[in-house]
Amino acid sequence: MLVRPALLPLWPPRVKDLFGREGPLVLEVGFGDGRFTAELAKAHPEWLILGAEVSAASVLRAYRRLKREGIGNVRLYHGQGPFALRNLVPPGSLRRVIVNFPDPWPKKRHQAKRLLREDFFRKLSTRLVEGGDLLLTTDHEEYFRFALEEAAKTGLYRVEVRDPPEAHLRTKYALKWKAAGRTFFHAVFTKVAVALPEGQTRLADPTPWPPIRRYEVAHALLRGELPKELTLAKAPVAIPGGVAVFLEVARGEEGFYVLTHVEEEDLTQDLLLEVRRSAHGLYAGVSRFGSPLITEGVKEAVRALVRELGGVGLEVVQDHT
Ligand SMILES: C[S@@+](CC[C@H](N)C(=O)[O-])C[C@H]1O[C@@H](n2cnc3c(N)ncnc32)[C@H](O)[C@@H]1O
């Protein structure tokens, strides 16, 4: 029931491989405790529902609920909605996206963190089927207006403002805000066109916004003695579309573990890099711990680590970064 992208041989996976059968595909972003997801799955047993949620505690809660209720047509992904949309959903395949009570990020300086921005609506158009839609329900009027404006900027959606369907008012947050006497807002954004890459008048690329590229390995072998201490620059390293930061270095039996934060477009990972003895020399590269996704950004972080090791006199003999 849990989707582990690192273990999938293909991005995006075929719908049949993910769910064991074909069917109308629906994505819910930010499913929280999963009570709405469970109700939706039971009300539409023919639907295939992929949920994305960044909170690990919520994923666990939803996972237990779905298991308890014997629900088989839901897959849960622990991570960002845009990541799921980009890498787990084939282009032109989504019937519906559901967003119930998205985090509103009310402060002006935090608005870039909002999910329903112009860029998201553009990308979404590449994954929705013709006539596919996004349903938004929220208690936050300012975010609601913001989402309407952002979608309108794209010219890719027909938007209808309606009363929220009853089922969308039974989520955990809906019940909380109902008890507080809040008003609810609901809109249906129906795709009428797909975003074209700049300068193009028709869609030539069969996979607009292609999935993130993954790699098998990211390591180097170096000649020299393992240093007694390893001190790495704390300054962020620029990587394509983001940054990497070495947060902490810990000493282990065979060498050092470097807790590394890598932020790329649609993907944020905290992973371990290792500098340790191996049968072929000193290994500097990604640790398998936590099955990280080896992306261009992760490779760039390894390159930065190798550069630092070069600075303390270690010489690269094999470079697989
Ligand atoms: C206010 S809660 C609403 C939860 C649930 N939909 C409900 O109505 O009870 C917002 C949820 O969205 C999740 N979330 C926020 N940003 C997200 C993102 N980019 N991708 C996936 N989940 C996200 C949060 O962890 C949180 O569980």
TrEMBL record:
Enzymatic reactions: guanosine(46) in tRNA + S-adenosyl-L-methionine = N(7)-methylguanosine(46) in tRNA + S-adenosyl-L-homocysteine
Binding site for substrate: 107, 139
MF terms in GO: tRNA (guanine(46)-N7)-methyltransferase activity
Keywords: Methyltransferase, S-adenosyl-L-methionine, Transferase, tRNA processing
Pathway(s) of this molecule: tRNA modification; N(7)-methylguanine-tRNA biosynthesis
Residues annotated to bind S-adenosyl-L-methionine: 28, 53, 103
Family, similarity comment: Belongs to the class I-like SAM-binding methyltransferase superfamily. TrmB family.
Function: Catalyzes the formation of N(7)-methylguanine at position 46 (m7G46) in tRNA.
Name used for this protein in its record: tRNA (guanine-N(7)-)-methyltransferase
